[in-house]
Amino acid sequence: MKKRLLAIAVLTCCATTATAANINLANLGAGAQGQANFRAFSEDMGAALSYKGVTPPAPLGVTGFDIGVEVTASQLQSQTFKAVSGNNTTTLPVPKLHIAKGLPMGFDIAGFYSAIPTTNISLYGAELRYAIMEGGLTMPAVGVRGSFSKLSGVNGWSLDTKGLDVSISKGFAILTPYAGVGTVWTNSTATGFAAESFRQNKVFLGANANFGLTNIALEYDKTGAVPSYSAKLGFRF
Asked: Which of 229, 228, 182, 230 shows the shortest CA–CA distance to 202?
């Protein structure tokens, strides 16, 4: 079952460029209504494309790695993505290759790359996380994270996000549930529209299950009004 899930995720990532269609922001319209549509589109995409760690805050340690194939499905709140993409859906899947590395003194660094199916959107991002409390048998782990993500591949449109959050986790045998809160700042600029910059609050919770080298993580995230569901399958050691 684990091998089947990994194969599906890898095939999804590989299929993205084969079915890509161009994002056309001109379909948002013009004037005041076009600007309102661009704002709604930017809020949806800022939430969906912002960094999602899909990992507990407990540090990996100097020799630790977390490598996985991840898919995030975000439920967009406006109809604008349908208009600009030609896709008859408000659910946006974002497959990612995600890699994290433990550093000394409770720090971890991580990054991801994505190419989004049925669009010409590419996306990359990174995080730096610090464990305020590293956790143990009786104590939880608490971490603070700074992150960013940046879109590329769409002519005439630029979007980037910056995030700051704090999270807590407590391990129980192979299972580590975690939860956190934070804020995401989004900058979105496009030809023919005024730039939009805004902040959205976020909450998230998840669980990580480690079976030796095989690792499975699930996370629910709500940034602004957009709920997102992530699953990651890989190796954590």
From this structure: 182
Q: Range of 210's domain?
A: 2-236
Domain count, the chain: 1
Check residue 118 and give its pLDDT.
81
pLDDT, the chain, mean:
91
Q: Could you give the CA distance from residue 124 to residue 149 in angstroms, rounded to a whole number? A: 6
Total-model pTM = 0.89
39-69 pLDDT tens trace: 999 999 999 999 999 999 999 999 999 999 9
DSSP state string for the chain: -HHHHHHHHHHHHHTTTTT-----GGGG-SHHHHHHHHHHHHHHHHHHHS----S-SS---TT-EEEEEEEEEEE-SSSHHHHHH--S-SEEEEEEEEEEEE-GGGEEEEEEEEE-TTSS-EEEEEEEEEEEEE--SSS-EEEEEEEEEEEES-TTEEEEEEEEEEEEE--BTTEEEEEEEEEEEEEEEETTS--EEEEEEEEEEEEEEEETTEEEEEEEEEETTEEEEEEEEEEE-
Question: Domain containing 100 — which CATH number?
Answer: 2.40.160.20
Q: Cα separation of 79 and 94, whole Å?
A: 18
CB 152 within 8 A of CB 160: no
Write the pLDDT tens digit of every residue in 80-102.
Answer: 999 999 888 899 999 999 999 99
